[in-house]
Specification:
About 25% of the residues lie in helices and about 30% in strands. By secondary structure, it is an alpha+beta fold. The chain has one domain.
Amino acid sequence: MKKLVVAALAGVVALAGLTGCMSDADIASENVSKAADNFEVGRRVTVVNGITDKYLLVIEGYCSLGNSDKEREISVTCKDVTGYGGFKKYFVTLSDNVIVLTEQLQASQVSTERSRVVFKPESIIPDIRVGG
């Protein structure tokens, strides 16, 4: 456990060193993205057919866009805020005539001076389930 804490602190120090080279806009953008990845930012994702100008799909909520999607695919994971809890995941396959617009619904109050670091120690211990 001690090694884990030391490794995490080393990562924070390294990130702090890199932050000195970044512009205010880069830091704010990074912090808004981290907030969205933690389901703190309301978004509207609109998928439009570029030929017919018709909406194919509109997703609204506290959503995170996929960071390691396959080429020509976008995944959207949203927190269910209807009272049932849980999450919903959507996949959009891009083609030559599909346009995806992601809009942030409200301003985020983030720092332009410090990069945000999210450390979740509970993610180190996996959720192991046995059986069906």
